[in-house]
Amino acid sequence: MKGVEIKPNCVTIASVLCWESIMGYGKQGDTKRGRKIGACVSKIGGAWRHGGSDVSPSSKHHRAGSHLRVSTTSTTSYDDEVSITFSGKLSSFSGNLGNVHGSSNRMKGLFKHKPRPPGEIVRQTRDLIALSETDYEETNPKQSKRLGIWPEISRNIRDLKSILYGNSEAEPVAEACLSLTQEFFREDTLRPLIKSLPKLDLEARKDATQIVANLQKQQVGSRLVASEYLESNLDVIDTLVEGIGRDPQMALHYTGMLKECVRHQVVAKYILESKNLERFFDYVQVPYFDVATDASKIFRELLTRHKSTVSEYLSKNYEWFFAEYNTRLLEKGSYFTKRQASKLLGDVLMDRSNSGVMVRYVSSLDHLRIMMNLLREPTKNIQLEAFHIFKLFVANERKPEDIVAILVANRNKILRLFADLKPEKEDEGFEADKLLVVGEIASLSLKLTE
């Protein structure tokens, strides 16, 4: 065979040559192997197609109106010259090519991946993470990368996120979310996913964080299965809380998950009653602003969302909690810390469910001194937050004598301070409260002079 030539003056889309057909073509007496050369021809603009055409082994063959050309110089040996444009079974692969421009949308559908069932993706992810934790992976990390374990885990995590959140083409489907949630908590997938977080790339970490956060809201019937799971696996919460302080680069992922987990009462109660709460007195003051902000949000959620739990906790742990809170946050904290802590304290004390705690707090002379020092802070925002707590001391109908004495002794300073204290935007409620506080302090002075 001298060669196979593709004519330069023909439009070639693809050539799929059957070797046996070519080698058999031209053999004398062999009519079976060399007779049929399948062709699929598409002429741009004309939509002429041929599929599986029979071409007789003549010395010259030209098909009118098409670009199929087969020519040989001899039929007596393998050293024939065969010139073809299209051959093979391309039509069976591509379906109906037709007009190239008109069929582009149909061609796209040929290569579209069939969606995998959500449960299958969860199971595969769980199995791959388990495989990555084997001794083989630990001793052969490079081989593990070559096997593509972590890229495959990342791809699965991305797919799981798309199921829960939807994408640019489709909204999340309730049935798919339900299937994913059931399989996720049917066997322990949450713990290994969190444990694998440091080994994932940044985008996969973000996706995993969003998955864990979203699953806290998913219901199976009327049950929050995430809450039930965490109640039996509270060590997962320990991992998240401890992780915030372990690595600043990972901290935001852990806080992102934990912000949703503490919405479950069982989780909030566990953190409040464990050593984990003490960690947040440090976390809200870390030098990384985003981490400190997230930690402050979690701290606030712990002390405000589940009112009965918070009230019970503060009543039982009043001395320890407020000693830590006052010393570490209100007295020694930074501007950001003092502002956030004073605002949170005001919200906690003014909540009706904490009325007993509030009365106890505003009856303390030490607590009053802390508030009066905050009123002297150079920043107005802290002054305003301190005022909302200070007014509780003044409004207390059963003020202890030492509280009254301090208020009277500092009456002139307090009144001068309040004369200039006002929020940036006009607030009628604030002005009304300030008027009552000033009037009450003035009346205390009058009562003492009678």
Give an overview in words.
This protein is mainly α and 450 residues long. Helix content is 61%, strand content 4%. The strands form 3 sheets. It has a two-stranded parallel sheet. Strand 5 and strand 6 form a beta hairpin. Helix 10 packs parallel to helix 13, helix 12 packs antiparallel against helix 13 and helix 13 packs parallel to helix 16. The radius of gyration is 38 Å and the shape is elongated. It starts with a strand and ends with a helix. The N terminus is likely disordered.
* Envelope shape: elongated
| Percent helix range | 55-70%
- Measured by DSSP, the beta-strand proportion falls in under 5%
How many E strands? 6
Question: Poorly predicted ranges (pLDDT <50, ≥5 residues)?
Answer: 1-98
Question: For the largest beta sheet, what order do the strands appear in spatially?
Answer: 1-4
| Distance linking N and C termini | 127 Å
Structural class: mainly alpha
Radius of gyration: 38 Å
Please count the helical segments.
25
Mean pLDDT: 80
Sheet with the most strands, sense and barrel status: 2 strands, parallel
